[in-house]
Amino acid sequence: MRLNKIILSFVSALVILFSTSVASFAKVVGDKIILGAAISLTGKYSSNGVHTQNGYNMAVDRINSMGGVKVGGKTYKFDIIYYDDESNPKRAAQLAERLISQDGVEFMLGPYSSGLTKAIAPVTEKYGVPMVEANGASRSLFTKGYKYLFAVLAPANLYLDVAIDLAVEKNNGKPVTVAMAFEQDAFSQDVRLGVLDAIKRTGSKKVIDDKLPKELNDMAATLVKVKQMKPDVLVVSGHTKGALTAIRQIAEMKVDVPMLAMTHCDAAKLSKQHGKNSQYALCASQWHKTLTYKDNFFKDGMTYAADFEKEFGYDPPYQSAESSAALLVFKDAFERANSFDQKKVRDALADTNMQTFYGNIKFAPGGQNVDKPMVLFQVMCDDSGKCENKVVAPTKWASAKLIHPVPKWSER
Amino acid sequence: MDFMVFQYPMITVQACLDGILLGILFALIAYGMALQWGVMNIINIAQGDLVILGGYIAYFMYLYGIHPAWGVIVAPVIMYFLGVLIYKLVINKVVDRDLFISILATFGISILFMQLMNFAFGADVVLANSDYGTTMLFNNNVVLPNSKLFSAFISILFAICLVIYMKKSKLGRAIRATAQNARAAKILGVDTEKVYAATFGINAALCGVAGALISITFTIHPYMGLPYTIRSFMIVIVAGLGNLPGVAMSGMGLGVFEEFADYILGTEFRIGSVFLLLVLILVYRRFKLSRKREYLK
Fold first, then answer.
1. What is the pLDDT of residue B135?
2. What is the rounded distance in angstroms from the CA atom of residue B110 to the CA atom of residue A238?
């Protein structure tokens, strides 16, 4: 009997504790706007998860120190509750549920990766919680009719179609032959669809269409086919390991291809891992620090990169830049809505039309950003072996001229 | 389906050579598994994770400016002691138990290792560059990265050393005796506890060598261990325990099979085809066994 009493009082103490903590976490407390985010701090996405978190934190500090958010004549500051989703979609969905129903968060920031964003979006949609996400580019996110999802980045199908256009342009407008190797995840397959569209549009021809497995660490078979078929362009998308494996084996097998276009070179730090072997690779990127977009908070890309490096000790990958941009979008929307009503904030987000250091932001009805083109950079090395990523397309932002065709291995 | 691999003879040659070189490396990992399976009756699910850990050792040497090829000497030494430690902490408690218990225990170790590696080394895919260059054959139509040749050479070297060690040394004889009959060996004065620890250590050391080679030829990542466990399991199933030539042959066979599956079915079915082959072989073995049982009746 006594034991029962002890248990009972213990449980009720817990209940009281939880109910008070819920109250203290509500959306806007005092002068704080509390945003929620499930981020991959452990598990397979942890490195990019940390880039995302650093990007968010950097923007929170900057906005807060530069006057915060003005709503209804009062100044508010941003604060973020983070949970670790362990790179696991199920966990991410649970945490979104917890952030909203237990912690009372009314505005969310996105997680890292398309897969996790896909897991969270139905939850935020159910509760009508506006979510600005910066790291889910899969096309399928924007075709489900979500009303509360906004992505500051360009959708995945736009990643590499620029490369096909560029190859056609270099071929004097004549169609080209394309070899493709894509991993079988949602993101890479979306990139593939974009490339297929571009192939159709330009009347080009695909000669190889390989799918890469998740456990990929050997794509020799694909490359042997490339040697045999001699396509004009080789397109590879398989996250970091795809980029690293491709460069290693292309160099080892001396595969000559006039144009090599990839995704995820930023995260793979190609030139750091492969040195001169990575030279001439074309990489799709959401952002590059040399782009000349401007805003009042971070000034421009170069300033952002310098500030970021000072705070976190490394050059910001685009994952951090786009995450910082997400907070600028939220601030702008809060001020235009002049309210914390979720519906009003959502409508203000939908009307967003602004420039940030990361690029122009304007959302299509599906939630994707349609005002920011992807950029392609090319890895270029000098004689000392120091390599740099230089933007080569679109021409408006180019800081170097595209080297095409890639010199043969026998001539390097 | 794509039968290009048979249309161009050079591609067939390339696929065979790639497969054989890969298979030799698999065989080394499988030999470690066969050894400890035979001696201790333990199927080590963490085999692949030990491999990856060995790869990280070579990678860190590379980061600090030492050529990663030295990893094939350093990694096995570190891994041997780690193997003995794992044995003392966990494996010795399950070694006499049911096979299922040991699978569960090593499965747990596998998960723990994955998470620890992810925690310690980060989730980035990494590799160590050997800068060994490339060998071109047949008028440049067949290319063999020297790193793959190096891996195969080192694997063979280690396998030969191990065979000689098993035949000639005192510990090697004790290990073989324990594998044949642990109780009899014990009665005759073999310290089986020590033998078990050494066996697990040797297995871990072999994984360390293989891992260092993989970091030179392919890429490593904390979660990439399982395919290596599956492959070595499969090789051992085909070859049987305590049959080194068998392990080598079935390793190379698997390597070639994988390469051809890659060309014909597509890279996406590469690992899938290995799993399928595993199922087929298990079914076939069962079928053969049941025939044998009928004779006995």
1. 78
2. 25
Number of CB pairs < 8 Å for A and B?
A: 102
Q: What type of residue sits at position A380?
A: M
Give tens-digit pLDDT for A155-209. Answer: 888 888 888 988 998 888 899 999 999 988 778 888 999 999 999 999 999 998 8
Residue A184 touches chain B, beta carbons under 8 Å: yes
Sort residue A113 into left (φ over 0), alpha (ψ -120 to 50) or beta. left
Considering only CA atoms, which of A153, A156, A159, A52 is closest in space to residue A112? A52
Q: Number of structural domains, chain B?
A: 1
CATH number of the domain to which B237 belongs: 1.10.3470
Are A52 and A112 contacting, i.e. CB atoms less than 8 angstroms apart?
Answer: yes
Residues in B closer than 8 angstroms to A252, CB to CB, are 134, 143, 145, 147
A36-69: pLDDT as tens digits: 999 998 887 888 899 999 999 999 999 999 989 9
A267 touches chain B (CB under 8 A): yes
- What residues of chain B have any CB closer than 8 angstroms to a CB in chain A? 4, 8, 11, 14-15, 18, 22, 115, 118-119, 122-127, 129, 134, 136, 140, 143, 145, 147, 214, 218-219, 221-224, 226-227, 259, 262-263, 266-272
The boundaries of the domain holding residue B170 are 4-296
Predicted pLDDT of residue A21: 46
Give the residue-averaged pLDDT of A12-34: 60
Burial of A342 (C-beta count, 10 Å sphere; 0-12/13-18/19+): middle
Quickly name the fold that domain A18-154+291-362 has.
Rossmann fold (3.40.50)
How buried is B13 (Cβ within 10 angstroms: 0-12 exposed, 13-18 middle, 19+ buried)? middle
Confidence of residue A6 (pLDDT cuts 50, 70, 90): low
Encoded tokens for B276: 């399928």
Q: How far is A41 from chain B (nearest CA, A)?
A: 10
pLDDT in tens, A65-123: 998 999 988 899 999 999 999 888 999 999 999 999 998 899 999 999 888 999 999 99
Euclidean distance between CA atoms A158 and A233, whole angstroms: 17
Read off the tokens for A278: 């990575």
Partner-chain residue, chosen from B118, B143, B221, that has the shortest CB–CB distance to A241 = B221
pLDDT for A215: 67
User: A158-285+374-411, which class in CATH?
Assistant: alpha beta
